[in-house]
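// run 5 | inverse folding | seed 20
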């Protein structure tokens, strides 16, 4: 198994659960919140700083500027003048690429598909679900979310954050079909069904004619 799997997701679409199932099946790592510790270990930023800026844009800036800075390295003068949020993104971007070079893995969110866009062994997916499914998922996960309206408010807030973050730091558009290789509806397939379909996609991708 040599495939890198990135999973973008709507909030409440069970992206983490699906990713963990796929990773467990193949015996590979799944990076979600635990990526923060990896970034902290590979950079000068503390865990709290990275967590504060995790998938949260603080200001708009040009994608090309960020990518140019990345390509020139962390010593570029433009990097020194960057806001902390952009520096954290670049540290995360770099960590994702380093982890991908170590072997196959599942990456949840955090513009991993953009970080790995030049890796021919990467498959990029986006998970969605209908409102009822997502509301139930959020209410089951958060004890303080006690009504469907509170769940929906949280869903809308988180989706806006993820969309803004992705659209700032990527040349593509969050949630649009042409930004990914596959878009799957978890409400239609179920969590296990979605994981099984991804596993089948990866196994087909790994066949000799596709390698």
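// decoded
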């Amino acid at each position: 198994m040599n495939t890198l799997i990135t999973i973008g997701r709507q909030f409440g679409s069970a992206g983490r659960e699906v990713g963990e199932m796929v990773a467990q099946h193949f015996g590979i790592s799944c990076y979600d919140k635990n990526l923060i510790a990896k970034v902290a270990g590979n950079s000068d930023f503390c865990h709290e700083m990275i967590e504060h800026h995790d998938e949260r844009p603080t200001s708009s800036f040009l994608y090309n500027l960020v990518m140019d800075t990345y390509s020139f390295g962390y010593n570029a003068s433009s990097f020194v003048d960057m806001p902390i949020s952009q520096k954290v993104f670049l540290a995360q971007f770099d960590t994702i690429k380093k982890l991908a070079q170590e072997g196959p893995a599942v990456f949840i969110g955090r513009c991993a598909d953009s970080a790995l866009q030049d890796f021919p062994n990467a498959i990029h997916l986006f998970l969605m679900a209908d409102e009822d499914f997502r509301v139930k998922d959020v209410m089951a996960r958060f004890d303080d979310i006690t009504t469907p309206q509170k769940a929906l408010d949280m869903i809308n807030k988180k989706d806006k954050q993820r969309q803004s973050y992705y659209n700032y730091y990527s040349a593509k558009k969050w949630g649009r079909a042409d930004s990914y290789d596959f878009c799957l509806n978890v409400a239609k397939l179920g969590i296990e069904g979605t994981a099984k379909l991804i596993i089948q996609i990866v196994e087909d991708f790994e066949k000799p004619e596709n390698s």
